[in-house]
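Lab meeting notes turned into a lecture example. A postdoc, R.K., suggested we walk through two folding results consecutively so the class can see how the record format repeats. The first protein's sequence and structure tokens come next.
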Amino acid sequence: MWIVRYGSILKKPRDCICGKSEVLKDLLHCSLCLGFWCGVLSSTFLYIYVEENPILILLPLASSAVCWFFDSLLDLIQISCNYLDKNN
């Protein structure tokens, strides 16, 4: 999720996609949504090629929560660092 959303190597395709579709633009700017769909792709791959385990249906939900949590945490750290730099 992090590479798709913030990776500099994917900037041109991301900008192209965002310019053509409002729905995909919203998807690429939401860590919760993008984390879910990355989890769907991962769980599908794991289900087909590794193990047919029905618990994999929960992977997209867990992926979404983890991606959102760490994206929010890193945003908070960045805001705190900017605030501290401004006050020094």
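The second example is placed directly after the first for contrast:
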Amino acid sequence: MNGKGVAILGSTGSIGRQTLEVIAASQDRFRVVALAAARNVEALAEQARRFRPTLVAVLDESLAPELKGRLEGTDIRVSAGEAGLLEAATLGEAAVVVGAVSGIAGLRPVLAAIRSGKRLALANKEPLVAAGGIVMSAARQAGAEIIPVDSEHSALFQCLLGHQREHVRRIILTASGGALRELSPEELSRVTPQQALAHPTWRMGPKVTVDSATLMNKGLEVIEAHWLFGVPVERIEVILHHQSIVHSLVEFTDGATIAQLSQPDMRLPIQYALSYPERLPARWGALELAQTGELTFCAIDVDRYPCLRLAYDAARRGGTAPAALNAADEVAVEAFLAGRIGFMDIPRIIETVLSRYTPEPADALERVISADADARAIAHSLVG
């Protein structure tokens, strides 16, 4: 079979589904060789029947019999549990592994893909936020490529091509401000999950969409950018840009600033991560500046977005503090979406968790996973 083999970890989520759209539009260049998901076996089986991978894996082992039943009559191999995700991440036919499994469950498979020398198209934040030093060290040792899928980090990757890191003065991440950017502080205290999920420009999963509204997503992206590009946290800034056209910028020591602009469509950075260094023809709409109109930028009111401050604080503390931050955020956002806490309780819970948690060096995977578990336990006790 022709085409670059692609394994998708997290194929039933937002990024996974859009990756399959990209592959379907370029079947002469890419082919699906493995699909993996946490527990949505109905969607996973439907994807497998359409794209006919060699392997499908479901993280929840109890669902493996159902998945096998749904794929009866095919020659698709079914695997399950963490071992299944690891098998998908290291499959010999896969040249590229798309890391889009949410939560800490995606950490070991991502590391396995890197250590196997695969190109990692990285979409989930947890590996770099929780274990950035471990991940980047593994990539250097294996000679593996990490191509970011996040629109902001894809933009930075493109802006930095051909430039030396010592010439970088600062990195600037843009933030849309999310679905609640026009609300007053008083109105924020009464926000419903439905309001927080109504993002004005991006099509994303619920957790990321809420993180966009709290700006925690930008805080996590600051930590990611630090590890991916070797730039100190103090030289990574965030500005508000409501139009989501300029995806990030790099300012150099000579005063020049380079930006990457495109339509706010995740299929663009996904396609670039799969095809790099080649650029495929535009399939998802080109940018027409005359129709775009004005592009605006403004400073962020940190008091309005306490989650961004908490992320910077965790980054400066270092060690396993970012892992604890990420875990606390996941628990708080899940509780908010379930209607158990209010929107402004999210930063309160995260801050309390970080005040009670003592970071350790993030020099071993077991320590990172332990930090994640400890922070979750504290957060769950606060949520009630």
